[in-house]
């Protein structure tokens, strides 16, 4: 019996093309998506897009064929970012499949699936059902309806750009010079369409300095993963050399956005969460509403502090888009942010959009005269370690060691919402850390934050010593 557990994961489909993911398997997944998600919800059509990887068109065609086999019509929008696909599922009110491996290396591809209006399909919201049905179809073949579904093509890039611009207008800002590192990935397609006039939209007061806009799924310059520091170095250098106001880096499918200030310093995603959360809350309040903002538990403590001081309700979430999207909908939250630079918007179908976050940053900067570093100085007051991975022989034993070592210390509280969070923020010196297991590897992921650098380093080294104890 075929085993698809290594391919169809908790949040999406992702694997090595030709080994874990073939066009035959993609066809089975498309048919399974039709039978377990699309048809039971009364939908009759699915929108499909793909990124710039060489395997994208073939895999997208295979998914479409599987959907058609089960009698579902397909609307192909071709090249798009993941948030472009989310926009299409909202604008067309139909489920969607995005063929992408996000920031993974060139050998990979995969899929992100959603219901209409970008509602998540994850392990606990249908993806497990898709995996089980797809396994059966790989082994036994896909049953074909007497009347297969149809295929049509639609260009959505201009609609996508217009929609984003309507949410965050940039027309009245001061002129900004912006370096953008697309990493040879989908931002090379979406940035000219949204921030420039490639899709026929009016020019904005932006001078875009492009880095690696040529679409190339082999990623000849660097992997499209801005979470890794080495993948931001070209952007940091270019911002300083060009005297730019800021730099933007997008990941492979352009649903995440990372920001570099005018000095070439990387801006923490938590600072962007605080900035955009305050902006979105102010907009809602201006119309007489109340505002809730979601943040994941790895976000800086500055996020709930700054938003709470402004009277905004904040809700803490587990890490992962399916969790934060569910909380967004349950709380009717106006905005949500993750430490990994996923930013979610109520007005964007509760989904994440790197481009919309970028528009907010540029709007805020362009509405005042100072540099970005000065504007964000109060949004990032603490020191963080970043995510540190440790390979361990026994994840459960390592977590037990952390509980035993830190749990009895004065002023410490523990919680297990997601992994293990050790909290000393209510006492001096202020610090906290979270340790989470990887879902696929024998790894523990450590994130530490403290009120000052010396404390952060001491706690980081202490925690790593316990985690890595032989």
Set down the secondary structure blueprint:
Blueprint: E1 13-16, H1 23-38, E2 45-50, H2 56-69, E3 73-79, H3 82-91, E4 96-99, E5 108-114, H4 127-140, E6 151-153, H5 157-167, E7 176-181, H6 187-194, E8 206-211, H7 233-241, E9 246-250, E10 257-260, E11 266-267, H8 269-286, E12 292-296, H9 302-309, E13 313-317, H10 321-331, E14 335-337, E15 343-345, E16 351-352, H11 354-366, H12 372-375, E17 383-384, E18 388-391, H13 395-406, E19 413-415, E20 420-423, E21 431-437, E22 443-450, H14 453-467
Parallel strand pairs: 2-3, 2-4, 3-6, 7-8, 7-9, 12-13, 12-14
Antiparallel strand pairs: 1-5, 4-5, 9-10, 10-11, 14-15, 15-16, 17-22, 18-22, 19-20, 20-21, 21-22
Describe this structure in words.
The protein has 470 residues and is an alpha/beta fold. 35% of the residues lie in helices and 21% in strands. α8 (269-286) crosses α11 (354-366). The longest helix is centred in the middle third of the chain and has 18 residues, at 269-286. The radius of gyration is 22 Å and the shape is globular. The model has no long low-confidence stretch (mean pLDDT 96).
């Amino acid at each position: 019996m075929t085993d698809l557990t290594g391919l169809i994961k908790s949040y999406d489909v992702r694997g090595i093309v030709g080994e874990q993911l073939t066009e035959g398997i993609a066809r089975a997944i498309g048919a399974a998506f039709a039978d377990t998600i699309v048809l039971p919800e009364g939908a009759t059509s699915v929108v499909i897009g793909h990124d710039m990887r060489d395997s994208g068109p073939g895999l997208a065609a295979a998914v479409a064929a599987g959907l058609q086999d089960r009698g579902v019509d397909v609307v192909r929008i071709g090249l798009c970012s993941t948030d472009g696909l989310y926009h299409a599922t909202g604008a067309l009110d139909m489920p969607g499949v995005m063929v992408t491996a996000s920031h993974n290396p060139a050998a990979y591809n995969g899929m992100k699936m959603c219901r209409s209006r970008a509602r998540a399909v994850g392990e606990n919201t249908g993806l497990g059902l898709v995996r089980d049905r797809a396994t059966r179809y790989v082994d036994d073949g896909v049953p074909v309806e007497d009347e297969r579904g149809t295929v049509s093509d639609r260009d959505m890039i201009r609609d996508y750009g217009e929609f984003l611009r309507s949410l965050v207008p940039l027309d009245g800002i001061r002129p900004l010079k912006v370096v953008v590192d697309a990493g040879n990935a989908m931002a090379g397609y979406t940035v000219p369409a949204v921030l420039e006039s490639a899709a026929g939209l009016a020019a904005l007061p932006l001078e875009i300095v492009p880095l690696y806009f040529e679409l190339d799924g082999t990623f000849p310059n660097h992997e499209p993963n801005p979470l890794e520091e080495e993948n931001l170095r070209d952007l940091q250098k270019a911002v300083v050399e060009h005297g730019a106001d800021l730099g933007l880096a997008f990941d492979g499918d352009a649903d995440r956005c990372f920001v570099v200030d005018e000095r070439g310093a990387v801006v923490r995603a938590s600072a962007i969460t605080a900035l955009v959360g305050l902006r979105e809350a102010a907009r809602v309040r201006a119309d007489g509403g109340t505002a809730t903002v979601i943040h994941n538990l790895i976000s800086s403590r500055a996020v709930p502090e700054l938003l709470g001081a402004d009277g905004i309700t904040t809700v803490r979430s587990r890490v992962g888009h399916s969790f934060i999207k569910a909380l967004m909908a349950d709380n009717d939250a106006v905005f949500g942010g993750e430490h990994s630079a996923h930013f979610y918007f109520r007005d964007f179908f509760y989904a994440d959009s790197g481009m919309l976050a970028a528009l907010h940053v540029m709007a805020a900067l362009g509405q005042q005269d100072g540099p970005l570093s000065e504007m964000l100085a109060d949004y990032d007051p603490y020191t963080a370690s970043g995510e540190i991975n440790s390979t361990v022989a026994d994840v459960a034993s390592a977590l037990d060691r952390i509980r035993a070592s830190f749990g009895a210390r004065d002023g410490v509280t523990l919680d297990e919402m997601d992994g293990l969070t050790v909290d000393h923020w209510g006492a001096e010196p202020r610090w906290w850390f979270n340790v989470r297991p990887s879902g696929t590897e024998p790894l523990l992921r450590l994130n530490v934050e403290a009120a000052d650098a010396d404390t952060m380093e001491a706690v980081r080294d202490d925690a790593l010593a316990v985690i890595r104890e032989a």
